[in-house]
Amino acid sequence: MHFPISPSLTLLTLPLLIPQATAWGSLGHRTVAYLASMHFTAQSNILTNVLLNGQDISEAALFPDKVRHMPAFAYSAHWHFIDARDSPPAQCGINMTRDCLAADGGCVVSAIANHTARVADVKLERFFRGQSLRFMMHFFGDVHQPLHTEAEGRGGNDIPVVLDGVHTNLHSVWDTAIPKKHAGGAVGGGVEGEMEAAWAWATRLYGVRDGMQEKECVSDAPACALEWASEVNSYVCSYVMADGYKDQDLNGTYYDGAVPIIDDLVGKAGRRLAAWINAISGQEGLALQTQ
Ligand SMILES: *[C@@H]1O[C@H](CO)[C@@H](O)[C@H](O)[C@H]1NC(C)=O
Ligand SMILES: *[C@@H]1O[C@H](CO)[C@@H](O)[C@H](O)[C@H]1NC(C)=O
Ligand SMILES: *[C@@H]1O[C@H](CO)[C@@H](O)[C@H](O)[C@H]1NC(C)=O
């Protein structure tokens, strides 16, 4: 790995920097990446293999969560979300001026715009294109997590809830606990087990292929990312913060209602990511063939 930090520093600092709540947990991010790869063209397989130097694509998608708390990548911390300052559950909606442009360091919408452009920039050094591909894959996942598009209660981090008797918070159950309960596979399977569970989840979502007839937005990254963030943010009002999350264990009807939403959004994230990577690799097709 050619990160601009020494390996010993990485080992020393990582355990101290486990984030309180990360994006879609690693299961969700791996699934988005695997699902996208199932929709890749041959050119996209070549491009991603070259830019990721053969690294497993689901592992590559986790990179931004591993570095966001390191000083060298502090600038990337704001890129994982957009804090819509709306009033759920009564009123949801994103205002780019209020929720992103005014925020220090941008947001997930501007980050998607930045990193899709960098991945497509054939003049940029391959190492940096690879790093941007990792960011791009990760943020396509994050923008499809409803609580990454919401300011209320710090995206639900400050809202206590209980799932299966475990006291946690609303953000965390959407990132991690509900996806794990739904698609986590065997408990204690380590990294290999998680990759296997993610592959199985992606295969199921690929099998459904509901949305494949949809024409994905692939022409204008800032407009597409804003459209997705707005679509995902609407779930905060219609479900995530609507009712049924207070004063009861979420393992009943709340969980049952969340699962199809999560399947839908993880599916969309994977398909949209594939559409973008296919568009980028298609433009670059000839150049890649001669490498
Ligand atoms: C968006 O937010 C800005 C800054 O707060 C405000 O001036 C503008 O009126 C808002 N736009 C809409 C459509 O609400
Ligand atoms: C785009 O990403 C690069 C590399 O991560 C970063 O240096 C740059 O500041 C970003 N630009 C914007 C406008 O966010
Ligand atoms: C839900 O969790 C509670 C503990 O909070 C437990 O008693 C109950 O059996 C669980 N129900 C299901 C369907 O898992």
UniProtKB/TrEMBL annotation:
Keywords (A to Z) from UniProt: Disulfide bond, Endonuclease, Glycoprotein, Hydrolase, Metal-binding, Nuclease, Signal
Any one GO molecular-function label of the UniProt entry: hydrolase activity, acting on ester bonds
Signal sequence bounds: 1-23
Top-level lineage group: Eukaryota
Similarity field: Belongs to the nuclease type I family.
PANTHER family referenced in this protein's UniProt entry, alphabetically: ENDONUCLEASE 4
The name this protein goes by in its record: Nuclease S1
